Model the fold of this input.
Amino acid sequence: MEKKEITDIWTDEYKIHSYEMDVKGNASLPMLCKYMQESAYHHAENLGFGFSHLMEKNLFWVLVNQKIKMKSYPRWGEKIIIHTWPSGKGRLSYFRDFKIFDQNKQLIGIATTTWYAIDLEKRRPRRLEDYFEFNPVEGELVFQERPDRLKFIEYVETLKTFQIGYFDLDINDHVNNVRYIEWILECFPLDFHKSHLLNEIEISYSSEAVYGDSVSTSINETKNKIFSHCLLRTEDERELCRAKTSWQKIN
Done:
């Protein structure tokens, strides 16, 4: 059998389509997150601990934290290049970083993510080392420090409520992580989106939400153009995630 070549840094190229645009004509951040997730899937499969490998052990990957910083956004018809690699691990957490380049190979975005390998039945994190020979090469950190879990901020007003339906779910039968980002961005009115650019988002996931749940969103402007967000399951007020967004006024 031909031996599979292991790649320390994975590279994918994507073309931006018309249906991935926002009102400003830029590729939306949720779409870029989906591309990063796809590249993470490809690389994990290449390294031998991807979705298919974890499912054989009754495990699945769950994203628990991410931080994304964008300098600019690609436009319709342009191409982007995503590089991704494992960047370290904790006792139960596994880190993966990203760089996003435009079609001229200029760096336009960076991201770091934290993942757990979750037991499908007990819904608890497990050590991959107990199931696999796990020794990927650890690459650079795109941020000088790993982001900590975001601090809780008291929220007093519910802004919007969403009912979870079929198209909100992923293959693990819970809400896909990108959907939370979309709900967070829905907190801002149309005029704000047209006049501002999202520079940075950081999000910490706490609990999973499933079909039929109701999700409420809250928002506070903590500093000029910096907002804190919280998403709760309406039925029991259980926190699902908290986030922070930073915006730039468009001239």
